[in-house]
Amino acid sequence: EEVKANGALSARAEELKAQGNQKFKEAHFSAAIDLYTQALELTSSAILFCNRSLAHLKLENYGYAEADATRAIECDPTYIKGYYRRGSAFFAMGKFKQAIKDLKSVCKIVPNDRDAKTKLATAQKELRAILFAECLERETPPPLNPENIIVPDSYQGLHLPDVVTESWVVNLMQEFKDQKKLHKKYVVLILLRIREILSRYTSLVYVNIPDDNEITVCGDVHGQYYDLMNIFQVNGRPNVENPYLFNGDFVDRGSFSVEVILTLFAWKICYPNHFHLTRGNHESKNMNKMYGFEGEVIAKYDAEVYDLFSNVFCYLPLGAVLNNRVLVVHGGLFAQDGIKLADIDNTDRVREPPESGIMCDILW
Prior knowledge:
Layout: H1 2-25, H2 29-40, H3 46-58, H4 62-75, H5 80-92, H6 96-109, H7 114-137, H8 166-177, H9 184-198, E1 204-207, E2 216-218, H10 225-235, E3 244-247, H11 257-270, E4 275-278, H12 285-291, H13 293-300, H14 303-313, E5 319-322, E6 326-329, H15 341-345, H16 358-363
Helix pairs in contact: 1-2, 2-3, 3-4, 3-5, 4-5, 5-6, 6-7, 8-11, 9-11, 9-14
């Protein structure tokens, strides 16, 4: 009877896997994940974990993809797809050292796998670029001085006032909607002002909302400027009575990341106590290089401005606590148990994200 029961469970798991595979083929990745999960509740299988890992990769749930690939390897250390899936997840997260290790394992066993060889070569190239950039950063470049940036008389755009008002930010948003550029001098001044504001915070910001008020928390904007405008149109512009918290991933992927981040920074300068920003994993050099923000800034301005953006991102808080009741972070739960708010608060955030630890978990 026990053999029959086990056989029935295995048969049901295979049935659920087949259904999950069909949903995957139809690009219904969330449904596929649900079916693979049901199958895994009946039997532990490297193939099932690997299939679910691939579905998570399609949804850009890279942390879950890495975890499932690791479980697949634990089930069967010889299952080469597990290493490829995990290497792909590490690659997408910019964790090139770990990606290289797994992809080398794949290429050693399957030396003619074109995808693995290409991804390995790219990971090695990116790692070399990062190490080279780290060497260059040891020689601190002179600060970008806005006083040395001349605004020509022919410039017809907005000028940055000493006091940023709501009406000025509204005009800025209209300029961006009309696809006009803010002059480099004023971009630099905004970045320097916002860095000075952000530098006053610890890594965890405590936000108090009166009982008769609400706060709007927004997730990834990813350079979608017209979506950002729609948020303010539907929910109201930021002000003292209408506070906001934007929870990271402001840039990359979309074509208007510069406009998005400058708008958010302008609102933060206008209402520093009622407009809040926390960091996401895309506020980092690795992600900006891979997903477009670096190229966009250099195309619209130059490398100096991009370097200043990268520096400012390091000052963004890692999370927020709302009314001492709700913790808001971009990533998720911590790999290590027992993490306290004080541990987050004391985390040194003024750096590029590490590959492990509290800061990594918060951002990813």
